[in-house]
Amino acid sequence: MLLNMKNSFISKSEEETKEIAEALAEGLRGDEVILLYGSLASGKTVFVKGLARGMGINESLVSSPTFTIMNIYSGKGLLFHIDLYRVEDKKEIELLGVEDFLGMGIVAVEWGEKAEGLPWSTRIIKVKIKEEENGERKIEIKRLN
User: Fold this and answer.
1) pTM for this structure?
2) Burial 123-133 (b: 16+ CB within 10 A, else e)
3) Where are the domains of the chain?
């Protein structure tokens, strides 16, 4: 699996970002929470498209759930795509009922910093996407447990 070989990548395009995420998805058990970090337009949703592709989900179905908060996609397993951009505090996150989906599929959370510290007793992977001055993306993947 790609993640075992290294945990820091440089992406020069959206396609490369998707390929990194696709490789990650292919090595997952199906019960992980992936916390995505990055500024606006850094590539978080593009990364989720790659996760979807790696799970046998048509990536064109994936869109940012900024206003709906959560989208659910089905392929080889379920992909719960959550966007916390508009969520103000942890109580709102708790009201979303994310705990109900833990263990049922991959939970990908954009704006992962807003979910830090929540008692989600599952396998957590942090993905930090940083836009470099030349337009490339530095993607760091770290498995927490």
Assistant:
1) 0.90
2) bbbbbbbeeee
3) 2-143
Q: Can you tell me the distance from the alpha carbon of 16 to that of 3, in angstroms, rounded to the nearest whole number?
A: 15
Cα–Cα nearest to 71, from 35, 33, 116, 109: 109
Q: CA dihedral in degrees (26, 81, 39, 91; nearest 10)? A: -130
Each residue's pLDDT tens digit, 97-108: 788 888 889 999
- Beta-strand pair 78-83/70-74: antiparallel
Contacting residues for 29 by C-beta, under 8 A, at least 6 apart: 123
Domain 2-143, second-level architecture: 3-Layer(aba) Sandwich (3.40)
Give the CA distances from residue 42 to residues 3, 4, 37, 131, in Å, rounded to whole numbers and listed in that order: 21, 24, 9, 6
Q: What percent of the chain has pLDDT over 70?
A: 94
